[in-house]
Amino acid sequence: MSRREKESCLLETGRINFLIIKQSGSNDMKKILELTMFIAHLPLSGFLCFRVKRFNLPGLSHLRILLCFVICMVMAASQFLNPPQVEGAFHEQLAVDTRAIALANNVTADPPGILSIHYNPAGLSLLGDGNYISLGAILPIINKTSRVSKDPNFEGFHDLNGNLIKDPLWGTQNGPDRFSGNSWSGTEGSNTSGKMYIPVLDTTLDFLVAPILGLSHRNPGSKWTFAYSAYVPFAVGMNNGDKSDPSRWDGEAVYWQHLIYIGPGVSYQVNKTLSVGASLGVGQSALGVGTEVRAPNAIVNLTKTLGDATQGMGNPLFDLTIPMPLFGGGIGPYDSIGHLSLSAHDDFSPSFNLGVLWGPFDWISFGISYQSAIKTHLSGKYQLTYSEQWQNMVEWCGKSALMQIISMALDLPYQRVGEQAGTITADREIPQIVNLGIKLKPIKRLSLLADVHWANWSSVKQDYFVFDQKIQLLQLAKYMGYNGGDSILLLERNWKDTWNWGVGAEYQALDWLMLRAGYENRISSVQAIYYDAIYALPTLDYYGAGLGIKGSGLGIKMLRDIDIDLAVGYLVNKSYKVSNNTSSNMNSTVLGSGVMNPFAGLNYEQETAAYLGSVKATMPLDIVTTALSKTIDVLNPFSKKSASAKTGLKTTENVVVDSPSTTAIDNLRVEGQSYYIENSD
């Protein structure tokens, strides 16, 4: 069959598929087939740039490869064109490396230098001979706005006289309605800052920042490359300190993070096209939660109703048996029960990464990496401070001998305490992840990247916190259907495995300047029926952009041996809604559905935006060590240089014609290339 006949056959097949999809009525698939047909109709001459004569491959074979890649990626993307709003994304791999941020994590087939340790350790083989260091930082800013409004179909709770009890979160009433529903304004608020835990100092900061640190070494001509890095593969944290923010009832302050503080890695170049690598991560996991507690349900409201009904009915007989008012006056459905805060960490949480990088031709490469699960055993402290109404009710349970007997028989608390504090433990798991990637170079200056990420979030079934004593709140919660136990806080999670996909591109605009951009679709783990505002992020679209700058092109002497990366990232979900009575961890009105339902009777809506800014510099290690040595000499009063500077004496200096870092940076730039920026010649 001739080439023209092959092309005609390919086009005819596309037309048939298009007609089939068109008949099926799928708008998304129609768009995909239209795009595919457009690509297929492009003249063959448009793909001649893919011909690689040195391998003696026909141009049509490259066309087929390109078409298959485009069709497969577009078909895969079609599964996510209309992502379901019943899921939410989580916080993995958001702030690890500058170049990865710019490419929206699409780096498995083109790993980012020393931070290949995390994304694909095999990528360490792309570094040059010698010793190198990467230094930088990532600044994330998370803006979350929460809105709640009364469900028009929620009848609410009523007092002793049958009057509707107003929830402060309903806002102001604009007019009458069926159940005083849609006429309420609702309330909203935004987080006031980020929040993160600082290891060693055992304290927290009200902002977010992630370090970038990497070192690498390879002997000249060796196939082995060794590296070390410290980074944060998982992190989220925020303060909801605004008193008008409804989130304070479901996570007033929250952080969950994992820091790799010892991250050695190694890669081996099997041959010119294949590399393998592995890395070990010794990390610290930290978790903290602070929240106001309330329990809007019928049983809690009953205690208030009976308490109000029996006010002033006390007499000596009642005082010796069942004191009045009942339940010490009771607790209203929207009254605060108290405030819970806890913090825990695990200082030794090991993990490992494996990776393979294969580039059969200079215009295409494939990458695959595996990141192991991180199992942690957290331990720390908690404090639960009770409100005055709660203390009155517990005191009532032990106010007479009869009440004490009844309380002991029913395992109810009867001793008034202002707070309970002690130690807490929890077992948590950050799931295993598999990354698949491909890189295409249609022309030498342009790289096209695509990744698929799978995360095993279904391994997370529950949040399981164990207290060192019986908790009064949980002792009473069991009579409202809670079955976790008196000393265990149990929150159902049942998250789902996730598939994320993304695409990216790098273009070498100048010999010293690389332009980068990427997109990732982050549909992930949290199901709507278990959604809460504690640390779940909704479905997010991730956009990245950045620059790679070769210092020698800037004309600044001190930067000539340094490669600089700049990146910004933007993640957004404009509206995520949880209708009343759909989440057992947030707004269920069903008794026993969960211990945490502060928004019962409310519709919840969340708007989320996150901004990432990052800078990283990569250079030969001797630049840093030389600078440190000179600084120490200047600051050391006993050094010869410091003494000569003070006395005005001259010291003999060796004249160096070429900077020692010039040779070192050339080692880093494989085959004359810069650290990230390819030679355009």
Structure overview:
- The protein is of the alpha+beta class and 681 residues long.
- The chain has two domains: 3-78, no CATH class; 98-622, Porin (Beta Barrel), CATH 2.40.160.
- It contains 13 helices and 22 strands.
- It has helices at residues 3-24, 27-41, 59-78, 98-102, 116-119, 298-309, 316-320, 388-396, 401-409, 472-477, 621-635, 640-647, 660-668, and strands at residues 130-150, 187-190, 193-194, 196-198, 203-205, 210-218, 224-239, 253-269, 274-293, 338-361, 364-371, 374-386, 419-430, 433-443, 446-455, 462-467, 488-492, 498-510, 513-522, 540-550, 563-578, 602-620.
- The strands form two sheets. It has a 14-stranded antiparallel beta barrel.
- A hairpin with a 4-residue loop joins β4 and β5.
- α2 packs antiparallel against α3.
- The chain is elongated, with a radius of gyration of 31 Å.
- Residues 10-65, 67-89 and 648-681 have low confidence and may be disordered.
- How do the strands line up in the largest sheet? 1-6-7-8-9-10-11-14-15-18-19-20-21-22
From the spread of the alpha carbons, the general shape counts as elongated
Mean pLDDT: 83
The CATH topology of the largest domain, please?
Porin
Number of domains: 2
Radius of gyration: 31 Å
What is the topological layout?
Elements lengths: L2 H22 L2 H15 L17 H20 L19 H5 L13 H4 L10 E21 L36 E4 L2 E2 L1 E3 L4 E3 L4 E9 L5 E16 L13 E17 L4 E20 L4 H12 L6 H5 L17 E24 L2 E8 L2 E13 L1 H9 L4 H9 L9 E12 L2 E11 L2 E10 L6 E6 L4 H6 L10 E5 L5 E13 L2 E10 L17 E11 L12 E16 L23 E19 H15 L4 H8 L12 H9 L13
Antiparallel strand pairs: 1-2, 1-6, 1-22, 3-7, 4-5, 6-7, 7-8, 8-9, 9-10, 10-11, 10-12, 11-14, 12-13, 13-16, 14-15, 15-18, 16-17, 18-19, 19-20, 20-21, 21-22
